[in-house]
Design goal:
The structure holds 2 protein chains of 2 kinds. Chain A is mainly alpha-helical. Chain A is built from 7 helices and no strands. Chain A has a domain of 174 residues: Ferritin, core subunit, four-helix bundle (Ferritin). In chain A, helix 2 packs antiparallel against helix 5 and helix 3 runs antiparallel to helix 6. Chain A is globular, with a radius of gyration of 20 Å. Chain B is globular and about 50 Å long. Classes of the chains: A mainly alpha, B mainly alpha.
Chain lengths: 287, 304
């Protein structure tokens, strides 16, 4: 809090708020992301130590994609609705040579039960869709297709997109650490819905509503996963991401002029986040 | 407004949002207590109930992950039916009735639940402190009085109520596991709050203190998800941790606007966004992954 409160005014300079928020960006780079990377790396080493004989990974599918730049080519994802059912790979574990997977989760040689693997594949596919949707939204705004665009909106969209790219990389890192394929396609069930809705987006408010839907889908899916996953590493990864989607949703609610938090259909704030929008494993396991 | 999916993804719909939501409407929304008997509450209470049941069934496989989620009949139909029954039963009653009926029963205890009890008691202690802190804040003129920003005041009131519900949920689960009801605040952060209260001279001061507590809560619950033995307990924790994270997001945004001398932008209107500078788009979403560095140890707030 500044001791010298300045006179209230209608606008705030970017430099003022940038100074206040600079530490936030530094924070996540200094603390959370490296910590997650370290955890996944540690897990990878544990798996390697427990499974000395492994089937050689498919180099074309096993790209370890930590980082926000190399996850996907987002622009074409909405159109490329799961042309390759990569997510289905996650129900067919590669043989490790040290025993099959019993579905017992962390007790397996790979550390992921089939159900865990499928859940994480769904999660990655949702992140891929989110990245694609934000990219489309940013492109539309830049092209002037959404009318007047407040300057804070593209900043939010760009920031949220970078988070989703990092999330996709994190989920894929867990999958590939377990010897499974990374998922680069968007959720095949949800993508047509989003594509259809995107066609009706005419302004920033419409875009925010669509983004809010995706954020709530992601948050609720991961929330359900936290309860359902068996791998401790997968739980930790998912638990570290769910609140981030919730913060995205909070800001989107604020942008839309709504109470900035979980709420009922009528807008009543909720103390417990719901699960109605969570996506099932069948989103990818049936492809 | 996003509504729940009821019949598959093709029916994921959006509802037109109100053109303007003023402070009066916000107060109305926060007072709609009947809506709190929503699916969120039902699922959380059901998960807690299952958690206690599972503590007796260590040898039995837990229900499928999807059983905790309504997937429109695709999975876990038996649980879905149970859940819908719960929804129907709970909608008819008030919050207290709902909690009492779901958690009524003989207390149970088991060695395998000791760690979970500690975690839940510590979580409850954080909630006790949060309720008390928001309660204190609301006695201050710049938060709960005539000079308060109405949105900030409504947020403080709503958030206090949400923490009270979290406390109730944690204590209910703890009691069913044979643990003691936690009525005392987290000892570590109680000292911090106690030291800070005399220094609270402005809304920004309160926002800063509240932000500290909310972040500790969210970080603790994120960490707890990896340490709880029960999937149902994790489901409960997960339904709460994101709400605390949203509190952090709101406090970050409000704090920045207050510090910038622009409290007039703390308002709930769809036209407000046009007045915000570009950098405001990153306010409230500081982390790509939620940190846990400040998470409280499991036993920090356990009942002694």
């Amino acid at each position: 809090m500044r001791s010298n409160r300045r006179q209230l005014r209608a606008d705030i300079s970017d430099s003022e708020l940038a100074a206040m928020t600079k530490s936030m960006d530094e924070l996540h780079h200094d603390e959370s992301l490296p910590k997650l990377r370290a955890a996944v790396a540690e897990w990878t080493e544990e798996i390697a130590a427990a499974s000395p004989v492994r089937e050689a990974p498919n180099p074309s599918r096993r790209r370890f994609l930590i980082g926000t730049g190399g996850v996907i080519a987002a622009g074409g994802l909405l159109a490329a609705c799961s042309s390759t059912p990569a997510a289905a790979h996650h129900t067919r574990r590669k043989s490790s040579g040290t025993g099959g997977n019993s579905g017992s989760g962390s007790g397996s040689s790979s550390g992921l039960s089939p159900a865990d693997a499928t859940s994480l594949a769904v999660d990655a596919s949702i992140e891929n869709l989110a990245v694609a949707a934000y990219t489309k939204g940013i492109d539309a705004a830049t092209a002037g297709k959404l009318g007047a665009v407040p300057p804070a909106v593209p900043v939010f969209a760009t920031t949220a997109r970078s988070h989703h790219a990092a999330h996709a990389a994190a989920f894929n890192a867990v999958l590939t650490a377990a010897g499974l394929s990374a998922v680069h396609e968007p959720d095949p069930v949800l993508t047509p819905v989003v594509t259809k809705k995107f066609a009706t987006v005419k302004n920033v408010g419409d875009l925010a509503e669509l983004a809010l839907l995706l954020e709530n889908v992601a948050a609720q899916t991961y929330q359900a996963d936290v309860g359902g996953l068996t791998s401790t590493h997968a739980i930790a990864t998912t638990a570290s991401i769910q609140p981030v989607e919730m913060t995205h949703a909070a800001i989107l609610y604020f942008v839309l002029g709504k109470y900035p938090g979980a709420q009922t259909a009528s807008g009543t704030p909720l103390a417990f986040n719901p699960l109605q929008l969570s996506r099932p494993n069948s989103d990818v396991s049936s492809t | 407004m996003v509504t729940g999916s009821t019949n598959g993804p093709d029916e994921v719909t959006t509802k037109e949002y109100a053109v303007t939501i003023d402070e009066h409407r916000l107060r109305e929304l926060t007072e709609e207590s009947s809506d709190l008997q929503s699916d969120a509450l039902q699922v959380t209470k059901q998960a807690l109930d299952e958690y206690v049941e599972l503590s007796h069934e260590e040898e039995a496989p837990p229900p499928a992950a999807a059983a905790l989620v309504d997937h429109d009949g695709e999975e876990g139909s038996a649980t879905v039916s149970t859940r819908r029954l719960l929804v129907g039963a709970l909608v008819a009653g008030g919050f207290g009735v709902a909690v009492a009926s779901l958690f009524a029963g003989t207390a149970v205890a088991g060695a395998s639940t000791t760690g979970d009890v500690d975690i839940l008691e510590t979580a409850a202690s954080i909630e006790v402190l949060a309720v008390a802190t928001y309660g204190k804040a609301l006695t201050l003129p710049f938060i709960g009085g005539s000079s308060a920003n109405p949105v900030v005041k409504a947020f403080a009131q709503t958030t206090k109520a949400q923490h009270a519900q979290h406390l109730q949920a944690f204590n209910a689960a703890t009691a069913r596991l044979g643990g003691a009801k936690q009525t005392k605040p987290d000892p570590k952060y109680a000292k911090i709050v106690q030291a800070a209260v005399p220094t609270l001279k402005s809304a920004a001061d309160v926002v800063g203190l509240a932000r500290t507590l909310e972040l500790v809560a969210a970080e603790t619950y994120v960490k707890d998800c990896s340490e709880l033995s029960s999937k149902s307990a994790r489901t409960v924790m997960a339904s709460i941790m994101g709400v605390e994270a949203q509190h952090v997001a709101v406090l970050d945004a409000v704090g920045a606007l207050l510090a910038a001398g622009a409290p007039q932008l703390i308002t709930l209107s769809p036209t407000n966004v046009a007045k915000l500078p570009a950098v405001a788009g990153s306010l409230g979403i500081p982390y790509p992954f939620w940190p846990t560095a400040q998470a409280s140890p499991a036993t920090e707030g356990a009942v002694k």
